[in-house]
Specification:
heterodimer, A: about 475 residues, mainly alpha, globular, B: about 650 residues, two-stranded antiparallel ribbon, 4 strands
Chain lengths: ~475, ~650
């Protein structure tokens, strides 16, 4: 066996190295249980992940698409970009988590949090780079099982434990269906390699269509698309806020990208191509519309963000329509912009929760009076989520609509546009609460910790600059591939 | 030649804006002013160096200065056709000239404002906006394509709005800023539509019109291109205050006087002229007739504004109308260009192009001087009204001399710069048609008359002794501090020398073809215009220089109607009021408002309550029961399967 093949997996291996370093650090630098004082702080994982991201991005410019282990592992330069985007998300999560993790009940578990989070990230890495359904499934599960531990991280809090239980039960259910679907595909073709299945799948057989359906359902669960989204609101509400933000962006984004690549690699022969386009068409419409309808009535911010996230996921998947290279660019760019905007909003929610314990939308009334900077930042992030120019969200929506429009899905773009207007309404409701609605007892003025501030500043810069700095989009565009371009 | 550093010309003012805007609150006035002034000073040095390097680099084989593109990248790609929005920096002779004009005047205004705005509330904000404006204006002139130009065009509009409304607690300033913004925005609608039509038919936004030396062939050139160009001109007419879109400029004088000098005299208001000049190859090739329409609009504006200026009593208003009139001169100069005999663009037929740019340059300098002088006077007497002044030459000698020189320049008296540029404009007008030539000569005479009227009104004439004694009693009536007079002196030096000491002549830097063009003074036109200007000045001296003005009183009494009409600016503002309030608001807006409130809102409210209703209906779906979730999940998969199978 040629061991040099491992070099192709340098991103996964270096992430594993980071995990091991943190593991060892956790052993020796664990805070003292009695005094509660710890030397182990947030800076270490943040620095390690930043270094990892930079190191990954540096040689990426020259890297070529390649395969390892007989096609089990596949790599394309675009994957480095996606993984780096996920890394940025994880770094933001770590920064945001500082306040929460330095609470007495969490102090001892600080190291655990980092390691478990990074394991889910490793799972996503494998999932993204998989070239074989088994590899894909292992990656998926590696991302999913530790995720449950994260959701139930506040295990003595009833809601957190309940959310964890709900998540694991439904995740099992969806995994079972996904596996069932994979078995249909295997039954139809006798292979699990993406590169082989594409040629072997016959377009019209019921078997492959069943496989496709169950695959879509399984991924729909991960991305929380309607009608596979029902776990989302309960889990988001119960999970610790930091974990919710992680779930709503990183886990979703990786799954959406994998959905895209697998659909174009495996399911794009003959009639199947039309089939999944029709399927996604209805899933997207349902996701955007139904999530919008639910979001209108929410009183709890985390639940609200859950429905907002479902709706945003619909837009994200819009990039997959037609499987074009332009769609891939638009999707990755959308993910990046959505990441900064959503993390920005969650960072505000998180610091407010850490300092006042409040999560209701009505609690935010008149936040502007007491915490003007936070209110302003939240406003910018919500504007970006709603797609108001000149913030980054406008450009990402513009690109994603343009991609779908050019792929020929004009009706879908129109429906999505109408939904954007509806979404504007509920995003502005929060802005209205913060600036206009009177409140006798607004959340008192507080100073957030430095790590959260760093996260907030990164998000602010992203929201303001990503749209204006056109080269980001252009750079992603040079690496993207789709059905219309040869990889 | 590599001009990578030109990016700094845009970045430095922007950084200064950010620093002053974000952290100005914690700075002292002095620090804020120094940050703004130093950054613009560095930019001015860079601009002068750029000019030196660009014109010093020599000409290409075809005798033109090469167009440099240090930066040009695709900002927003479309995947339809070849259209894309680019951002970048382009250097060509008129851009380099504009860089000098903008940075020089801006630097002078920055220095001057130290004295003028001293102790003013919001001093840091003022400097932040000045920096932002400078950045936007520079971005406008270095634009590589019409879309970038449009973006910066809107930005300067916003800055103008912010600075006119700087004294936002006074009602006239607020309404003037709104008026300026709304009128120019309304005009910019034409610009935008023009850009879209242009982009749609030609498939490009770029300013690169040439293909191997000649102007590129465009589809739809016959009818579409003149339409698009004229629509764009409407935007330019709004910014450059052409009749009937001029109404915002006199009101814009509510802003601080240095702002009027920078934005509403020297830079932003000439953006329209610059735009026409930028698109000049298209105008002259595809729409010469439309270009002449522009010339006549300009001629009428010049006449109208000169007539109004003769009757105003507020010195800043006089200067504002004089600005309108002078910009119209530049527009006329562009409009009277005619296609040449051998090539469509030749330096002889397109003499007006050079003349227009020349006048833009000289006008920026002497009009900025005039405004800054007016600022000094207003600073001293705390009033804009001429009746509060008179006899000021005793108190403000420096201001007196600089104002006089600038007035002589604008009147077209040699050897001051205005003479040279105005003479070229008149020559170009005569070349187009004798009628136009005589009309413009007449307006030039009016210019000399009203400018000397205001000069005598301020510095000679009847002194308002009572009021002046009162000012002296409360403090001091005299020359402004050095920080304010220094910019005046510097700008005056430019005005004195630039006409005849420029190495070569202006035409060897900027001309329609780009090749060197030696300017010949036409003695007939030069002598005629000087004689007429001197006669007007003498007339003004006879009427206004003495301490009592019987002639003026008698004339006012003899033509009361005419004086009243001119003083009221021929009731153009009232006509606008009538059209907007009585006709548009009553017969268009009100029905629309009804439609909006009852039909559109009704439909949306229905949608909202419908959405709410559906939301209520489907709420049981989110029950919290895991079994049910799994059930829905499975059902969803089944439905999906059937959707796909069909």
């Amino acid at each position: 066996m040629d061991y040099s093949q491992f070099l192709y997996m340098r991103e996964e291996l270096s992430l594993l190295l980071v995990i091991l370093i943190l593991f060892v650090a956790d052993l020796f630098m664990c805070p003292d249980k009695k005094s509660g004082k710890g030397v182990y702080n947030t800076a270490l994982p943040v620095v390690l992940m930043s270094v990892l991201t930079i190191v990954n991005l540096l040689p990426c410019c020259g890297a070529q698409a390649c395969e390892a282990f007989g096609g089990m592992y596949q790599y394309a330069p675009m994957m480095t970009i996606v993984k780096s985007v996920l890394n940025i998300g994880v770094i933001l999560v770590f920064l945001m988590a500082h306040g929460w993790l330095s609470r007495p009940e969490n102090k001892v578990k600080q190291g655990e949090f980092y390691i478990v989070t990074l394991f889910t990230l490793l799972g996503m890495y494998f999932m993204i780079s998989s070239g074989h359904f088994l590899m894909f499934f292992i990656g998926l599960e590696l991302a999913s099982v530790p995720m449950c531990a994260l959701i139930a991280f506040d295990k003595y809090r009833y809601e957190s434990a309940e959310a964890g239980a709900k998540y694991i039960l439904l995740a099992l259910f969806s995994s079972a269906l996904l596996l069932y679907g994979i078995s249909f595909i295997y039954g139809g073709t006798g292979s699990l390699y993406f590169s082989q299945i594409g040629a072997l799948l016959s377009g019209n057989s019921l078997l492959s269509l069943l496989g496709l359906t169950l695959f879509l359902a399984g991924m729909g669960f991960k991305i929380s698309l309607v009608p596979f989204h029902l776990w989302t609101a309960d889990t988001y509400e119960g999970a610790p806020t930091v974990v919710t933000s992680y779930l709503s962006v990183v886990s979703k984004g990786s799954a959406a990208f994998v959905l895209f690549t697998v659909l174009i690699k495996v399911f794009s022969v003959g009639q199947l191509f039309t089939d999944w386009n029709i399927g996604l068409f209805w899933i997207i419409i349902a996701s955007i519309t139904i999530a919008n309808l639910f979001a209108l009535r929410q009183k709890n911010l985390k639940r609200f963000m859950a429905f907002s996230a479902i709706s945003q996921a619909g837009y994200l998947v819009l990039g997959a329509m037609g499987g074009t290279a332009q769609g891939m660019t638009a999707m990755v760019f959308y993910l990046l912009v959505y990441l900064v905007a959503n993390f920005g909003a969650f960072a505000v929610i998180n610091v407010v929760e850490q300092n006042s314990g409040k999560l209701g939308i009505a609690d935010y009334n008149n936040l502007y009076q007491t915490n003007p900077k936070l209110a302003f930042l939240m406003t910018l992030c919500l504007f970006s989520l709603a797609g108001i120019p000149p913030f980054a969200g406008f450009f990402s929506k513009f690109f994603i609509f343009m991609a779908a429009f050019n792929a020929g899905f004009r009706l879908l773009v129109f429906i999505a546009l109408v939904n954007t207007i509806i979404s504007l309404y509920y995003y502005l409701l929060i802005v209205k609460a913060m600036y206009i609605s009177p409140n006798d007892q607004p959340i008192p003025t507080f100073r957030s910790d430095n790590y959260s501030r760093a996260a907030l500043i990164i998000c602010l810069l992203g929201v303001v600059l990503l749209g204006i700095a056109g080269w980001v989009y252009n750079y992603i565009d040079t690496l993207s591939y789709g059905l219309d371009t040869i990889l | 030649m590599d001009y990578q550093y030109t990016l700094l010309i845009l970045l430095l003012p922007f950084l200064s804006f950010l620093v002053l805007g974000l952290f100005g609150k914690w700075m002292s006035h002095k620090v804020a002013g120094i940050i703004g002034t130093v950054s613009i000073g560095v930019v001015a040095c860079l601009a002068f160096y750029t000019a030196y390097a660009y014109f010093g680099a020599g000409r290409d084989a075809d005798g033109t200065f090469a167009t440099e593109l240090p930066y040009n990248f695709t900002w927003l790609p479309f995947y339809i056709g070849n259209l894309h929005f680019d951002m970048g920096i382009m250097l060509d002779p008129i851009t380099v000239m504009m860089l000098i004009v903008i940075t020089t005047v801006s630097l002078m205004v920055h220095i001057y404002s130290f004295g003028y705005m001293h102790g003013e509330r919001g001093f840091q904000r003022y400097y932040a906006f000045l920096s932002l404006f400078t950045m936007s204006m520079l971005g406008l002139v270095v634009a590589t394509n019409i879309f970038q130009m449009y973006m910066f065009w809107e930005l300067v509009g916003v800055c103008s709005y912010l600075l006119i409304g700087f004294y936002y607690t006074t009602a006239p300033a607020v309404s003037a800023s709104k008026k300026a913004f709304i009128v120019t925005r309304f005009a910019d609608l034409g610009f935008l539509v023009g850009i879209l039509i242009y982009g749609f038919y030609t498939g490009t936004f770029s300013f690169d019109f040439t293909v191997s030396g000649s102007v590129r062939e465009f589809a739809g050139a016959s009818f579409i291109l003149p339409t698009a160009l004229f629509l764009m001109f409407i935007g330019g007419a709004g910014k450059s205050a052409m009749f009937p879109l001029h109404i915002w400029l006199p009101d814009a004088m509510e802003g601080p006087t240095p702002v009027s000098a920078l934005i509403h005299a020297a830079t932003m208001v000439v953006a329209g002229v610059f735009q026409v000049a930028r698109l000049f190859p298209l105008w002259i090739t595809y729409a010469p007739e439309t270009l002449h329409v522009v010339a006549w609009i300009g001629a009428f504006t010049a006449f109208y504004a000169a007539a109004v200026a003769c009757a105003q009593s507020d010195i800043k208003r006089v200067l504002a109308f004089s600005t309108i009139s002078q910009i119209a001169f530049m527009m006329v100069a562009l409009g009277v260009c005619i296609p040449g005999e051998h090539a469509i663009i030749d330096n002889h037929g397109s003499l007006g192009y050079m003349a227009s740019m020349y006048h833009l340059f000289t006008h920026a300098m002497f009009k900025a001087t005039l405004f800054l002088c007016a600022g000094c006077i207003i600073h001293a007497v705390h009033s804009n009204e001429m009746s509060m002044m008179g006899g000021m030459r005793k108190y403000m000698p420096v201001t007196n001399i600089t104002f006089l020189i600038a007035t002589l320049a604008i009147s077209g008296i040699p050897p001051f710069s205005g003479f040279f540029s105005k003479d070229e404009i008149l020559a170009a007008s005569f070349q187009y048609s004798p009628l136009m030539g005589w009309v413009m000569t007449g307006i030039a005479a009016m210019t000399a008359f009203y400018m000397f009227r205001v000069y005598y009104g301020i510095f000679w004439g009847t002194e308002n002794k009572e009021y002046h004694e009162e000012i002296k009693a409360h403090g001091h009536l005299g020359e402004a501090p050095l920080v304010m007079t220094l910019p005046l002196i510097l700008l005056t030096i430019i005005t004195i020398f630039v006409g005849w000491t420029l190495p070569g002549t202006f035409g060897s830097y900027v001309s329609a073809t780009g090749q060197a063009y030696v300017i010949h003074l036409d003695p007939k036109i030069a002598i005629t215009s000087v004689v007429i200007a001197v006669a007007s000045i003498l007339l003004a001296t006879w009427i206004y220089a003495r301490s009592s003005q019987p002639v003026a009183e008698r004339m006012k009494a003899a033509f009361p109607r005419l004086h009243e009409w001119a003083y009221r600016r021929f009731y153009i503002d009232e006509i606008y009021q009538f059209i907007t309030h009585r006709i548009i608001f009553a017969y268009i807006s009100r029905p629309l408002a009804w439609f909006d409130r009852h039909i559109v809102d009704g439909a949306l409210n229905g949608l909202a309550s419908g959405a709410n209703g559906i939301g209520e209906r489907i709420r049981p779906l989110q029950s919290g029961r895991v079994q049910q979730y799994a059930y829905v999940f499975f059902l969803g998969a089944v439905v999906l399967f059937f959707i796909m199978i069909i």
